[in-house]
Design brief:
The complex is a heterodimer of chains A (200) and B (182). Chain A has 200 residues and is mainly α. Chain A has 2 domains: 105 residues, Orthogonal Bundle (Rna Polymerase Sigma Factor, Chain: A), CATH 1.10.1740; 75 residues, Winged helix-like DNA-binding domain superfamily/Winged helix DNA-binding domain (Arc Repressor Mutant, subunit A). Chain A has 9 helices and no strands. In chain A, α7 crosses α9 and α8 crosses α9. Chain B has a domain of 101 residues. In chain B, α5 runs antiparallel to α6. The longest helix of chain B has 27 residues. Chain B starts with a helix and ends in a 12-residue tail after the last helix. The chains are: A mainly alpha (200), B mainly alpha (182).
Chain lengths: 200, 182
């Protein structure tokens, strides 16, 4: 591990990690190093988890630039809070919570500023590079068009598999509200997708 | 809107990609944020805050000392110093009257302190040091913002605190001192 930390950052590529057990061992070592303020170990953690975090941010925001900002903010916050990670949950779950908070914080900030700013999305909406194709892309785009709260709950519950209790805790809402928002999301998605002949 | 449709929808949602690579490397921005050393935040406003904290601490300590010393030489305080509400210009200084009072009290200080216990003497000296440090800090801040009225008021207050402390220790009395002495 010590030797690994002395090599260049490009050597932290996820491609190096092919053995799942080795991956877990590396992650644990990187976490301990990062908790001692080792930025290179933290970069390794970033390389390992960035796709998960960016994916979550992109699904939740439906906007590339917002997702990029939220991803960066999430990792910056994670760096600041590294010593608070106790391993009670998986590191990826801990990062997910931080990312959800980053998204919610950014939305709150955007709402404060929306009265004096032109919404960029009204001018230019970049196509999301999600890797989805065909009907899955239709579904992804329909999710992007959901109202904000319904989208957040649907993404966490239906796409990422969190329980209503877990999603509600991450979003700071009641579990009952989470269920109601998922129900609402399904109805809205059904309306959108049936018009397009969606066959799941 | 059937249960069957919901099941299909959920099944499709679970097949959506959860790991998506960003189109650009986001690490450089993160690295810059986490490795850039924090700049010194010693601003005039923080100097004020530090001075206030020290003054409040000093005042509390003096009150504690005054109340715990039964029968000691600390006597009641003469009428409070009165400073007129003022907005100072860029030139400000302690007036000769204020300086005389301060010098007189400081000359008496060692004599008065010698009548106190060692513990009380150390406490008073420590509190005087705190006030003097506050005066230094405020003056440092004033070098950057010489026209800052708030800082000037804090400086006056620091001097007043010092004078009050000296008077409490010495038990000396003074008549009302007016702002135009400064």
């Amino acid at each position: 591990m010590a030797a690994l930390l002395t090599v260049t950052s490009s050597d932290y590529s996820r491609d190096m990690i092919s053995d799942p057990q080795q991956s877990v061992a590396d992650e644990q070592a990187w976490i301990r190093q990062a908790q001692r303020a080792d930025a290179r170990a933290f970069e390794a953690l970033y390389r390992l988890h960035v796709d998960k975090i960016y994916g979550l941010c992109l699904r939740m925001t439906g906007n590339v630039s917002e997702a990029e900002d939220c991803t960066q903010e999430a990792f910056i916050q994670a760096w600041k809070k590294m010593t608070k990670f106790r391993g009670d949950s998986a590191f990826s779950t801990w990062l997910h919570r931080i990312a959800v908070n980053a998204v919610l914080g950014r939305i709150r900030k955007s709402k404060r500023e929306q009265d004096r700013m032109v919404a960029v999305t009204d001018v230019y909406q970049p196509r999301l590079a999600t890797g989805d194709s065909g009907e899955m892309r239709d579904l992804a785009e329909a999710i992007d068009r959901l109202p904000e709260k319904a989208r957040h709950v649907f993404v966490l519950h239906a796409v990422y598999g969190y329980s209503h209790d877990e999603a509600a805790k991450m979003l700071g809402i009641a579990a009952g509200t989470s269920k109601a928002q998922v129900h609402r999301a399904r109805r809205l998605l059904a309306q959108q997708l049936e018009e397009q002949g969606f066959e799941a | 809107m059937t249960e069957e449709f919901d099941d299909k929808l959920d099944s499709a949602a679970r097949q959506l990609a959860t790991e998506i690579s960003p189109e650009r490397d986001l690490w450089p921005g993160i690295a810059e944020a986490i490795t850039t050393p924090q700049r010194s935040r010693w601003t005039p406003m923080l100097a004020q805050a530090a001075a206030i904290v020290m003054l409040v601490g000093a005042s509390s300590a003096v009150t504690y000392i005054a109340t715990k010393n039964d029968g000691g030489p600390i006597v009641s305080v003469a009428p409070e110093l009165v400073f007129e509400q003022a907005a100072f210009g860029s030139n400000y200084h302690l007036g000769p009257g204020f300086q005389d009072a301060r010098n007189s009290l400081r000359a008496e200080l060692d004599v008065e302190l010698s009548r106190l216990s060692l513990e009380a003497r150390e406490d008073i000296r420590a509190n005087l040091n705190l006030i003097h440090q506050a005066i230094v800090d405020i003056n440092t801040a004033l070098e950057q913002e010489p026209d800052n009225v708030l800082l000037q008021q804090k400086l006056l207050r620091a001097y007043r605190e010092e004078l009050t402390l000296l008077r409490r220790v010495g038990g000396l009395t003074r008549n009302v001192m007016r702002r135009n002495d400064i």
